[in-house]
Amino acid sequence: MANDSSIRDHIDQAESGAPAGGRAIRDMFSTDEIFHRITATADEEFSRSARLLFLSGLAAGFSIGLSFLGSAALSAKVPSEAAWLVGAMLYPLGFIFIVIGRYQLFTENTLTPVTLVMTRIASLPLLLRVWGCVLLANILGAGAISYILATTGVLEPASAEVALQMGKHALAPDWMALFWKGGFAGWIVAGMVWLNHAARDTVSRVLITFILIYTVAVTDLAHSIIGSSEVLYLVFQGQTTFGTFIFSYFIPVVLGNTVGGVLLVAILNYSQTRQVRFPDRDCGKLELRWSEWWFGRHSGVPDLLSSGDRMEDGNEGEELMPPVSSDDHRKGSADASVTLLQYGDYECPTSFKIQGILEEVLRELDSEVSVVYRHLPLSRRHPHAEHAAIAAEAAGRQGKFWEMHKRLFDHQDNLDDDHLKTYAEDIGLDQKQFLQDLESDECRDRVLHDRRSGIRSGVQGTSNLFINGKRYQGEMEIEEILRAVNRVSNGLALA
Q1: Closest Cα to residue 186, out of 152, 204, 163, 213?
Q2: 290 and 359 part of one domain
Q3: Are 224 and 96 members of one domain?
Q4: Which residues are bridge partners to 25 per DSSP?
Q5: Residue 266: band (very low, low, confident or very high) from pLDDT cuts 50, 70, 90
Q6: Most buried among 106, 170, 367, 440, by the most CB within 10 A?
């Protein structure tokens, strides 16, 4: 029975630690569990590169154009006063693409990343980076669809006339009316995100998205991205100017969407979870300092490891999860009877000390042991640690992980980007490939994967060591570690 319970609990928890099943009722989440799921999504968004955010935002902008196209075409097919009510049935089309395809839409980002900023786990400039990148991409994508519809024969004459009227209707209200329309639309869309995180299946998410976004359409509210498609269609038809679009429509609606999404949803739902924001974690240790929150480009989420994270049920911090595999960075023979594994941070003196001890053990015991290294960047304390780990992975793609690994530990006080480039040159890397890999999602994902495995293995800091997959609990001194290695090599358990 205990094993069955462990399997069930493992299934009901995502790799990020967010619940995949409710604690009280398996198919229903509590408010704090929904909040926990949203923070996991926010962490993922903050960890994405600007390139990936932009491409995802561009896809969302293209998808929103489908809502404009579908609504105009269907409305033109219904010659009655109820035409708009029928045409609005295709208004949610682009949003369904976005929700199921996991594209980045600005109005959704008024909720998810804000949760980490409100809890002082991520900084304000980091949030503005996500918002700015996604919003720009959304507008470019939506504008591209509008340009195509306005300058080609995609729309039939009747549909083109309806599209023109939709643009004029969107632009008609005054500045304050658009702001308030945007506020209510932002509330509904951000609420849609909250409810979708409470759902456990695709059908439920499609129904939630359809009902709420159809409500936005039939109540004549203003959504910044789809409304931009409508008004930009006017611009490309020569009916209005870009200046009018920006100042008379875009600015008030974006502000309204933002206020509605943040104030009416994020803050209200956050207030319900203020005492249980992150189950089994000391939130105070996660929070950024106020100077970091206002001016830094930090996220405290990578530093969860130092805050007493909940370990996976069934793992008391003794077992390595996942076990060592051929994908790991290994020094020494893969056939060695003993494998030593360290989770380390290139900017951390403790990691440097342990790395030195392991090198000495490797020299002394030679073929009897091998050493494996996994990344554990504590970004809140060490702002260069994560990028240094990515640099090691970039070097690894050219077969020189360990050479870069040694350089990074030997120069812990000089890990800015200029020095990383110098170290790459010193060890003979192809500079062009190194710089490309340094910004690649693949190298970043590898580092984040190692970090998540550390959480799963119960690691709570950089003073850690695993011997043949078991947590070493002794002193981090060469004599003690050699004694433990000898016990394991003789078939005995760790003391």
Answers
A1: 213
A2: no
A3: yes
A4: 28
A5: low
A6: 106
CA nearest neighbour of 412 among 346, 461, 359, 351: 346
- Domain with 108, as residue range(s), is 2-295
In this prediction the pTM is 0.64
The CATH number of residue 404's host domain is 3.40.30.10
277 and 335 share one domain: no
Q: What is the overall mean pLDDT for the chain?
A: 86
Q: Looking at 271, 295, 319, which one is the last position of a domain?
A: 295
Res 15: pLDDT:
58
Say whether both 64 and 110 belong to one domain.
yes
**Do residue 342 and residue 454 come from a single domain?**
yes
* Number of domains observed in the structure of the chain: 2
Q: What is the pLDDT of residues 75-130, one digit of tens each?
A: 999 878 788 889 999 999 999 999 999 999 998 877 778 877 877 777 889 889 89
Task: Give domain status of residue 433, yes or no.
Answer: yes
Pair (271, 348) in one structural domain: no
DSSP collapsed to 3 states, the chain: CHHHHHHHHHHCECCCCCECCCCCECCECCHHHHHHHHHHHHHHHHHCCHHHHHHHHHHHHHHHHHHHHHHHHHHHCCCCCCHHHHHHHHCCHHHHHHHHHCCCCCCCCCCHHHHHHHCCCECHHHHHHHHHHHHHHHHHHHHHHHHHHHHCCCCCHHHHHHHHHHHHHHHCCCHHHHHHHHHHHHHHHHHHHHHHHHCCCHHHHHHHHHHHHHHHHHCCCCCHHHHHHHHHHHHHCCCCCHHHHHHHHHHHHHHHHHHHHHHHHHHHHHHHCCCCCCCCCCHHHHCCCHHHHHHCCCECHHHHHHCCCCCCCCCCCCECCCCCCCCCEEECCCCCCEEEEEEECCCCHHHHHHHHHHHHHHHHHHHHEEEEEEECCCCCCCCCHHHHHHHHHHHHCCCCHHHHHHHHHHCCCCCCHHHHHHHHHHCCCCHHHHHHHHCCHHHHHHHHHHHHHHHHCCCCCCCCCEECCEECCCCCCHHHHHHHHHHHHCCCCCC
Residue type, 56: S
